[in-house]
Amino acid sequence: MIGGLVRVLDNVFGRGEAAVTVPPLDGALRPNRALDEATRRLPLAEVDSVVVAADRLLASAGKEIHVLEGGAWRPFRGYEAEVACLSPVGDGGVAVALATGDIIIEGGRLDGRRYRAADCHCVTAMAVSGSDLFVANGSATNRAADWQLDLLRRNASGSIWRIDCESGRSTQVAGGLGYPAGLVADGGGLVYAEAWKHRLVRMTASDPGKPKILYADIPGYPGRLAASRDGHWLAVFAPRSQIVEFVLREPAYNSRMVAEVPRPYWIAPKLRSGRSFYEPLQGGGVKHLGVLKPWAPTLSAGLCVGLDGNFQPRVSLHSRADGATHGVTAIAEHDGHLFAAARGDGVVVAVPLDRLSADA
Amino acid sequence: MSVSDTIVRWRYRAVPDHLLGELLTKRWMDNAIPLLILTAVVVVFGSAIPDFFGAASLANLARQWGEFSLLVLALMIVVVAGGIDLSVGSTFALGNIVALALLNVAGWSVPAVVAATLACGAGVGLVNGMLVGFLRLRAFLTTLVTLIIVRAVVDMLLLHYSVPIAAAFVDSDAWFYFGEGTVLGIPFSVVVSITLAVAIHLVLTRTRWGWHVLATGSSRRSAHNVGISVRRVICATYVASGTLSALAGLLFASRLGGAGSDTGIGLEIAALTAAVLGGNSLGGGRGSAAKAVIGSITVMIIVNSLVRLGVTSGANSLLLGLVLLVAVAIDVRWLKNRLKVLSKVYVSPTYASLPPAPSTEGASPYALNDRLRSVELVGLGRIDGPEDVILDADDNIYVGNRTGDIVRFFAPDYGRQEIYVHIGGRPLGMAFARDGSLLCCIGGMGLYRVGSDREVEKLTDETNRSWFSLIDDSRLKLADDLDIAPDGRVFFSEATIRYEMHDWPVDCLESRGNGRIICFDPNTGATRTVLKNLVFPNGICMAHDGLSFMFAETWGCRVSRYYFDGPKAGSVEPVIADLPGYPDNINRASDGTYWLALVGMRTPSLDLAMKMPGFRKRMARRTAPDEWLYPNINTGCVIRFDAAGRVLETLWDLGGKNHPMITSMREHKGHLYIGGIFNNRIGRLKLEGADPDWTGPASYWGRA
Fold it and tell me: How far, CA to CA in Å, does B165 sit from each of A49, A164, B113?
């Protein structure tokens, strides 16, 4: 009763839950141009996942997996459906999830095994811990390609499943999540990124009912997690913005926009924005003297966050509104470089790791 | 159109939301609350007291009010200059006893008594003024001390003269006329105070001295900085206050003819209550005679009515004190929050549905191309914001810039440039008149003319004020583009009357018909509004028939034609009703058609928002301006259309490398010159097949 009243008042005054504030990029997240200034740029259209398996860098793009050889991508394997995500299995193998929900193991001890978690049609991330394969299912109702719709509907129907690699049996370990988009096994538990709630959460095997929030109020939508030398990398696939937060709190406009406006022109976070003049333009994005300001409000950007052992931000790499490395969906460390897959711009960029530690 | 859209449309048509904000911008709104309180007081006591509105009751009240309001006016003058005068009650008593003593005991003539009494009051005021104004003592403490000293003087005078005063008999009709006479049935004291109130009002609002008083009260330091002698002004207000108080005492003396030790006791509190209750701010700078009058009537009614209701004397003072407290609280809160409320309610978007946008694909006349890619650049990085571009007979280019200059680029290679003239404001649309002078709309200033000798002359900066507009729409805020009729009349657009130039995005959020088209006639020097309620009218271009002009409404995404002469005079016809973008300037093309710049393109998300005014209003309140949805002015194009509204061709710069937004284009000798208000270059495009000798001035005024 009181809670309802507070919500109504908040809506009137635009505060509390109704406030559209977005945390500033500050501290470890202070903006830079590191992603755009990367020494090597490896174009690969529709690149989505990058992983390291058996000391090779694999990247998924569309229905194919490519391998990096001699500074260029070479097709490695093709599938019947879009590759949803990749995950190293630990012994040189790699788990490949398809948009259909099928999971195939390539290489390693379990080479050729196929699994399927019941009811998973929106696999966003996977992680292996011992003989268990954990699968994040972003949404119960929307496919991964419809992630913007899932956000605009303000869904929280994501779930995490455990598949026993030996028996193939799947069980749900967590549900009701706001689009879990990243997953990593850490110590005795599992850390997942809840994109629509802008946070990293740890779930311990011993007490799965009591998740612990590790890193809250991320100024973007956190996606895949990957191990690094001394912690983890977090790929933030799109920035949060005031206008999107505002539209999320405007149910009438929100539903009419979904119904009447073509999807590429929605006011919603994107992997790449500003390509068409039919897309919404915000005040700060007006070009002055022929220049788009880097600080312009944008619906897409590139952001990789380096996390320490406690999942706290330590260093970050950006591509800002005027940059060309937007929509980073996956990160992998390989060969002394950080490889970030910027799906928005169809490119994998490589940044030397030693330069990063010097910055940090 | 769906049912809900229809409801929203009628809701916004029926309720003029924008008036609330405009009301709050008015200074006279400060009087609204005091007037409300006065009405409430009249209603409450009028119903509680029988015969409240009777003639005898009113006459009695009026006489007392005449004296009391003089005190309130006295206090108001001091308060409005940022001070306070607590000694008004004592000065009132002093005036009373001095007048009686001089008349009854000394036996002076009436005019001499009046002069001496006023001088006495002025003397007290002068002491206050010297101490507070020149020695800069605290007004509150100083006047408190004067209150006590003057009261003591009055008591001493009473000791000496109360008996002789009571014993003497005065036989002067003139003297008693002050207290008992009437002018056309109105008590003399009321006539005096109303006359003085009007005079004080005129002085405060219309004279240099009054402005100095208000300026000093608003901000002492700023007043000092602009050269006002703050000390003298403050001293003068105290002198005026003392004189008025003594005058009130004089009227009182004439009415009652007796001196007592309780004369004027507690009057300063009543007067202070009245002044504050009327809306005169204790902080200074805000106050008027009208407020003093309203406040004094209110307090007069309260005090008298309480007495008549049988409330005891102590309770009466208590209630008055409480009223003062509430009045001060309201004053402070109102002052503090008025602008906050104003900023929340001023922006008031309305329902603005646009027709479906035509496609920019395939066979559409708007189909995308890259024809602007081959522009030559003029003045890249050397010009800041050329909104409009115009060329003279010698091919020199004239453009306005952000800092208020008109810059000339010299033909033939445009490598050299000079500041042709500096006008100030924001030069926007330009046109050459028949005599070769350059006419220019200056955003924030009005319509200006630059003669061929570079002499700058203001043509007009105001038009007729609309009768029913709350905000003063006589001044030109954003003169935008102009064109000149064959007879020399200048028609120009004013994009919005509700916002300053740099707030144009807010006007877009509103998308109400805030703009107008104005005609300046150089033959008579008269300026008048010809078309109102246009949605950001922008470009204007004379049609080739010499009887009409084309004009573009930017947020309305349409081009219309207005006939100012001929059989269709006064009518408006649509030319293009559904543009895919936001039109800006229109100019003639060499083949009898017209060029139109689209400054930006419509986006489906903003088009939808236009149908949801509540969404836009909340967006304006809750998100930062940098985050607002804008029309997409990062991509523009140039189109050519004919008088029938057919779009003949479209020139795009895909990717917006050189011309992300285009606000104007001008054809000249086979080339098209392109400008953009946020750009730093002028584009020059060779037009295939265009008349290589055609120039704008020749098309308008014939070959010289």
Answer: 107, 116, 14
